[in-house]
Amino acid sequence: MTTFTPWQSLIGGLLIGFSTLSLIRWLGKVAGISSIVGQLWSSKPDDRGWRLAFVIGLLVSPLLYQLFSPLPAMQIEAGLPLLIVSGLLVGFGTRLGSGCTSGHGVCGLSRLSLRSLVATLTFMLVAIVVVWVTRHLLNS
Amino acid sequence: MANLIALIAGLVFGLGLIIGGMTNPAKVLGFLDVAGDWDPSLAFVMIGAIAVGFFAFRDAKQRKWSELGVSIDLPERTNIDQPLVIGAVLFGIGWGLAGFCPGPAVAAMLIGGSQVWIFVASMLAGMGLYTLATKLKWL
Questions:
Q1: Interface pTM (ipTM) of the complex?
Q2: What is the pLDDT of chain B when averaged over all its residues?
Q3: Residues with Cβ within 8 Å of residue A40, at least 6 apart in sequence
Q4: Residues 51-90 of B with CB under 8 A from A
């Protein structure tokens, strides 16, 4: 059980929004993490630099955060087999469906794309059902 | 210049994920657990991000070139097809199982320990499998 943090989450969301804004405005690129990461190797050399730079920024961000404040708790409930299955599904699914929570959920909804709305509603609803099954149906 | 902006964008994105609570899988699962002790925080992450993103993309749609003079790559596809829906279903299952989506998983790699690395390695394998499947024309 975690506590409700509306203000922190809103500020976090605004930061994500500003990051997306800078990528589209200066680089002309959509901040979709699954696409940035998934095309890191397959992209043409002149299209690779910004992807790599973005991923490095993402990787280093908690270290920067740590300089100012202790990191928030990170609780991973899933065991090893579940983490592997989950990772495979997330990797394959986001590439097949051309996006994840950032590409469809943030950028796509911001663009008012119906395609991204369908994807976002689908993965949210499916994830809600999965959590309901694992937490309530199988645990009762 | 482009790489520097991308680096800063990655940093800010990651800070947003950490501050917003997205790097904690338990919080993500708490958001998805609408029938239990629901933690609606992550809806506020979406609201904040879209509040800025809406104006960013509205502006981008009216331009042909970015501030750095490269063409603006907006997704052109609008069709709702099988790969989109099946992909979203598979992603949704994976997201609901562990509470990790791609951005937070990458952002948590240097602080989260071996469990995060195992998730990310599996995710990259899943992405590689997709690339392989398209190259072999299975999809």
A1: 0.96
A2: 96
A3: A48, A51, A52, A55
A4: 51-57, 59-61, 65-68, 70-75, 77-80, 83-90
